[in-house]
Structures are given as structure tokens and as C-alpha cells.
Amino acid sequence: MWKRGPHRRAQEGRKLRRRDAVGEQVAPPPPPAAPRTPDDTSWDEVASWYDALVGEKGSAYQQDTVIPGALRLLAPRAGERVLDLACGQGVFCRALHKLGVSVTGVDASERLIGLARSRSSRDIRYEVADARQMAALPRQGFDAAACLLAIENIDAVGLVFAECARVLRPGGRLVLVMTHPCFRIPRQSGWGWDEGRHLQYRRVDSYLSEMKVPIQMHPGADPSQITWTFHRPMQAYVQALAGAGLLVEALEEWPSKRVSKPGPQARAENRVRAEIPLFLAVKAVRVDAPAAPPEQAPAKPERPLRRAMPARGPRRRRGP
Predict the structure, then answer these.
(1) Integer Cα distance of 74 and 144 in angstroms
(2) What's the pLDDT tens digit per position in 33-56?
(3) Fewer beta carbons within 10 Å, N or C terminal of the chain?
């Protein structure tokens, strides 16, 4: 199946590293990964790397921007049943649990689920499951669901949204947070500097074409170890949501809160970082019957990019 961004791209050229607090119990190393099937895009094989990147409390991007914003959009109430889809090691599950929510976390990676269980209250339920077929979860069993920095690392989003619609009650909410598909396109976007105008800008070379892009987890060390990310234009997400009976109620764009160190280009970097969003957040609501999608031109076919690129940008892998 999948995995995340920014997550699944790291901190604009720099990897985030976890430092355990003094006296904090460190979870045991995850067990070896099971052999992968051809359609498996889970992050089981890179669970140790991702855990070192994100840790127990989440990356700086998650703590400063993604989790607060997602909680505000989701607006969970004590006693509600909330599903965290592609939950990883349970960072968002634990944030929800603190609010008195009944939480279930689902992830395709058995190793990451093991880490989540070792760090969480027993009141949080965790399941190893493919987001495209969550048979263990009941129909209309949840009031709300979230998928943070992971949907861009999951193939066949139409199947994922159909499962979300199945497990949500009528009126249930779904919140998605992803790296912004308009401006963060692997191999097809990047920063540039206009020397004449003394301006930094964001270059976008391709947008409407859907792409499957391999990402190297350890460039230079083990180039064979990769995960996949899937670029889709915004219309692909909205159409897939509508086709599943999930209507978009809110859309927000969140910039990075990073600030450049003093230097000749710092002012331009800070300005453009505040203007060009790093994340896209979408809130959708389940309706009783799927809406008929509007008539439109056929989508461009997915264009696979075979050569793996080094991991960079915020990745919650599953991203920042």
C-alpha cells in the first residue's frame, strides 16, 4: 500500500533526528520486516529509519503545524470514535487520546504498529491493515477520521476514500493533510534564485500528470532501499472524495514556520516560505449517498519515474 509525506521530502534539505529525553523509556527495536508483496508500499522495511526521524512526539513540522491544525479542523469531542489512518507509531493517536477520544489507529506496517502499542495507553486500539480494505473495522463505526502526511504515499486513493466512507457515520468528518501537491512535486519542483530581482521563487515543471516516484531512504548508504510517493493534482483528490460520498467542506494551506538564519538571502527566503504553502489540509463530510462526479476531460495517465530520488522535504512518512 503506502506511506507518507512529508510525509512522505524532509526538512527542506535537512533530515530531522530524534533525541530521547533524559529518563524517557525508549521503545525496543522493531522486529524484522516481513517479505513485501508486489503491491505493498507500506513503510515496514524502513520502520527503524522512520522512527528515528519522527520519534515518539513527532517531527517539528508535526508538532508546530500539522497536529494543531488537524485537531482544529477535526474538532474531536470527548467520547467520539476517531480513526487515525496510516497512524505510524501513533503520534496523532496519542494526541487524540489526551482529549478523551476513543481512538483506533490503522497502519500497513506491522513494525510501526508494534512501536505504537509500546508507547501508547492500552485504551488506544491499533490494527495492522491495508487502508484500501479495513475489514476489521465496522460499518459506520466512527464519528471522524484523519490521515496525516500519508495519503500522498498511498496508491489507489479512491479505494481508501471508499473505505473511509464505509466506516464513517453519516455526517462524519475526514481530515487529510498532505504536502501541497501544487508546489511540492518530487523531481518536478524546486527553489530558484532570481539574481536580477534578488528574489527566491518556486519552480514547477509538471503538475497535472499523475506520477509514481521512488524515494531513496538512505542515499549513498543503501540506494536499493526505497519507498514510493504518488503525485496527484488537487482535482484528483476532490473527485475521488466526491465519488466516495465525501464532500469537501473546508480547504486550508499552511506555510512552513521555519525561519532562515541571518544571511544575504534570508529575507527573501523567509518571504517566499511564508507565501508558498508547504501543506494542504482538506476537511470532507460523509453524505448519505455518493455525489455524481461532474463531467470533465479524462485525467492524464500516471507517469512512473523509475530512478529513485534521495529522500528530502518534511516526511511524515508518512511526512514532516
Answers:
(1) 7
(2) 444 444 555 555 555 555 556 666
(3) N
